[in-house]
Amino acid sequence: MKYIVCNLKNHLNEFNINDYINTIQKITYKNVIFCIDKKYINLFKNYKLCTQNYYDDLKKEYVLIGHYEKKESKEEIKEKITKALNQKIKVILCIGNENIKDYKSIKKQISYYLDKESNNIIIAYEPYNMIGSKENINIDDLTNIVKNIKKDFNDIKVLYGGNVNEKNINEIIEITDGVLIARLSYNPHKLTNILNKIKKSI
Predict the structure, then answer these.
(1) In a domain, 93, yes or no
(2) Average pLDDT, the chain
(3) Closest-CA residue to 36 (of 25, 23, 27, 45)
(4) What is the pTM of this model?
(5) Alpha-helix residue ranges (DSSP H) falling in the chain
(6) Distance (Å, rounded) from C-alpha 69 to C-alpha 29?
(7) Based on the number of CB atoms within 10 Å of its own CB, is 98 exposed (0-12), middle (13-18) or buried (19 or more)?
(8) Contact 60, 89 (CB under 8 A)
(9) Which residue range(s) make up the domain with 171?
């Protein structure tokens, strides 16, 4: 079963939260993780949850760390990773670069953040030029990135994020351990329809 991580950022509010929760109950794909603002955590009672950042009283199963929008230093990111792992929280670690063909920069980033323990870390690879883009990722380039990361880091789980859409989601999921999606997850009706069409073999 592949991971579908929905990073809702700040798109939930008092006006749409009830419709969102009622609609996603129709999703038949089981391994969906909702990454939400902590003020809405108690409303998502029947779902796997991920907080959008680390905080000291974090008690959920997953935390998203290192997203490019946070503009944090690598030292700050590593400190949060250490704290989360010490609490037995699974880290979804965002890694990105400007050029998908530049694997050296990816390897350098991951090597800095990973110590011996990697069982509770999932890599979310997001090439910066694909975030918010309308272009589809080159599948051959992504395949090479995923293979290299897994080879160099003990078959660690690798997700992909960056303009995941209804046309490419199945193809991306087949070569990764899942996807990190943002824009695709904002509309709960569209999200439900797309996830219910994911290939049953995945």
Answers:
(1) yes
(2) 90
(3) 45
(4) 0.93
(5) 17-24, 74-86, 103-113, 139-152, 169-175, 183-186, 188-195
(6) 28
(7) exposed
(8) yes
(9) 3-195
Rounded to the nearest 10°, the torsion over CA 105, 119, 50, 47 is: 140
For the chain, the distance separating the N- and C-terminal CA atoms, rounded to the nearest angstrom, is 6
- Kindly report the CATH number assigned to the domain that includes residue 131: 3.20.20.70
Residue 40 near residue 52 (C-beta atoms within 8 A):
no
Quick: pLDDT tens for 163-199: 999 899 999 999 999 999 999 999 999 999 999 988 7
Residue at 155: amino acid letter = D
Range in 29-33, 127-131, 165-169 with the lowest mean pLDDT: 127-131
H/E stretch holding 50 reads strand 48-51
Q: Letter for the amino acid at 39?
A: K
Within 10 A of 95 (CB to CB), how many other CB atoms are there? 21
200 in a structural domain: no
Distance in angstroms (rounded) separating the CA atoms of residues 139 and 90: 27
| Exposed e or buried b per residue across 139-178, where buried means at least 16 C-beta atoms within 10 angstroms of its C-beta | eeebeebbeebbeebeebbbbbbbbbeeebbeebbebbbb
Residue 13: inside a domain, yes or no? yes
Domain count, the chain: 1
> Model confidence over 85-107: pLDDT tens digits?
999 999 999 999 888 889 999 99
> Residues 6 or more apart from 185 whose CB is under 8 A from it?
6, 7, 8, 34, 191
Instruction: Specify if 202 maps to a domain.
Output: no
Element (H, E) at 160: strand 157-160
